[in-house]
Amino acid sequence: DLILPNGGTPAGTSSPASSSSLLNRLQLDDDIDGETRDLFVTVDDPKKHVCTMETYITYRITTKSTRAEFDLPEYSVRRRYQDFDWLRSKLEESQPTHLIPPLPEKFVVKGVVDRFSEEFVETRRKALDKFLKRITDHPVLSFNEHFNVFLTAKDLNAYRKQGIALLTRVGESVKHVTGGYKLRSRPLEFAAIGEYLDTFALKLGTIDRIAQRIIKEEIEYLVELREYGPVYSTWSALEGELAEPLEGVSACIGNCSTALEELTDDMTEDFLPVLREYILYSDSMKSVLKKRDQVQAEYEAKLEAVALRKEDRPKVPAEVEKCQDRVECFNADLKADMERWQNNKRQDFRQLLMGLADKNIQYYEKCLMAWESIIPLLQEKQEGK
Predict the structure, then answer these.
(1) Mean pLDDT in the chain?
(2) Are 179 and 106 in contact (CB under 8 A)?
């Protein structure tokens, strides 16, 4: 069974009134010491560009750094989604042993989401900002030259056309592995990682589908509430003594509608994107696992070839030793990235689930407050009789 992070659950049961402090308490545990960091990147200021052939959105990338690799202390460039896609492909190509953070999906279902709407653009901006921050926090990826070019080049197209030859030796070797070698079996620790990722993606996929159904039902309920409330208001015009209580009920339902809309928006804009990012993250990790398997399979095949002709060549050839080095490099990098990913996942899901609890508590508090507000009015009418 998949064990979700259990950190962050407050001891004891707090009163509903204290719900808004949950995230504040949580944030104290997750603050990063900014003094130890030397690279800061943000994504903001989305702008729509309408051209003859296409319409697209660009985002401002602001970089501040004290690293020697940067000629200036601060840069500001504009990038579109396909530039982020270029960066990710270059990172995969030049750093094959490392886990590359996923990008938000490029395509949306036609007619369901307007990719130029303010809500969609803001959701994507947040995802792209997180993508770059993941790279910035990585001890290897953040020093990649392609990443440097992405952050600093005024004209990225010039680099995209010429193509920078920055493949590492490991990268070149992995790139040329054709997959013709067949791995007998994964080492137990990597087999366990593969099984975990399969279960993890399955669980999140199920949560994602159910959450989407809940959101759909909430939207349908919201439509009914917006029709339901005004009926009491129009009814009040026909009633003398009941006019004030009926207007009160109408206003109460209106307040509940607003609270439900806020809850639904939060699930759509904050909850679902995190689930989908981690589903894509598991796919990225599986991809690195497959590359590791290919390199190990190549190493095993070379060892077998040497064993068959060991009488002629008693010494292990240099190419076999290099292949062994690649396997060890893959294993070390993959385990380190997996540990880093697990730490990020625990923090992200703790904050996500605490936020989900907090938003639901706020929703029910607002509904409770709305209904309680009309009780004195109804009691007055009853006493008046």
Answers:
(1) 83
(2) no
Q: What is the pLDDT of residue 108?
A: 52
Q: How far apart are CA 10 and CA 25, in angstroms?
A: 9
| Nearest in space to 28 (alpha carbons), one of 275, 271, 339, 351 | 351
Dist. CA 103–CA 84, nearest whole Å: 8
Helices (H), ranges, 114-187: 118-136, 145-152, 156-162, 169-175
pLDDT digits (tens, 9 = 90+) for 305-344: 777 765 555 566 778 888 889 999 999 999 999 999 999 9
The CATH homologous superfamily for domain 35-167 is Phox-like domain (3.30.1520.10)
Q: Could you check whether 35-167 and 179-385 share the same CATH topology?
A: no
**Angle between helix 188-236 and 318-384 (nearest 10):** 20
Digit-coded pLDDT (tens) for 39-75? 999 999 999 988 888 888 999 999 999 999 999 999 9
Nearest to 135 by CA among 47, 216, 201, 61: 61
Q: What residue segments make up the domains of the chain, in order of their start?
A: 35-167, 179-385
Q: Which of 127-141, 183-197, 299-313 has the largest mean confidence? A: 127-141
Residue 35 has pLDDT above 70, yes or no: no
Give the neighbor-by-neighbor strand order of the sheet with 74-80: 39-50, 55-65, 74-80
Between CA 175 and CA 181, with CA 176 as vertex, the angle to 5 degrees is 110
CATH 1.20.1270.60 assigned to 179-385: yes
